[in-house]
Specification:
Methyltransferase, Cobalt-precorrin-4 Transmethylase, Domain 2; four-stranded mixed beta sheet; 4 helices
């Protein structure tokens, strides 16, 4: 099987699966930059552990400042908690602590035609550029 290098995706769509360990040592802005750089290149980014609510807000804020009609149409983002985080303790819910243990799918707004979520599945219909 031939080795695929970044930017050599032919007619396909590249999906970047980013582990929680990779994101763990990064600052919030480094995470946002990593995500947006991938999405701006036309990739679908899947985060194993998701972002905190503050990081998601900042991602949307930064995205809005970078939208331009000819280059970047923005992002589609969908997140759902992984199975363990639904059983968060009473005290954690009472204190408003939200777990970042969630799967997050982020992609270019002009390539994701449909993004559907139910309790166990995120589906995306992705078009080529």
């Amino acid at each position: 099987m031939p080795e695929v290098t970044p930017g050599d995706s032919g007619d396909g769509v590249q999906i970047d699966l980013i582990s929680g360990a990779r994101m763990e040592g990064l600052t919030s802005m480094e995470k946002i930059r990593l995500i947006l750089d991938g999405v701006r290149d036309g990739n679908i980014v899947v985060l194993e552990e998701g972002l905190s609510p503050d990081e998601e807000s900042k991602l949307i804020e930064v995205t809005m400042t970078e939208i331009s009609p000819d280059e970047f149409n923005g992002i589609e983002i969908e997140t759902y908690p992984q199975s363990g985080s639904a059983n968060q303790g009473f005290l954690g819910r009472l204190m408003g602590k939200e777990s970042t243990k969630k799967l997050t799918v982020i992609g270019p707004a002009n390539q994701i035609e449909t993004l559907h979520k139910d309790e166990n599945l995120i589906s995306a219909l992705v078009s080529r550029k």
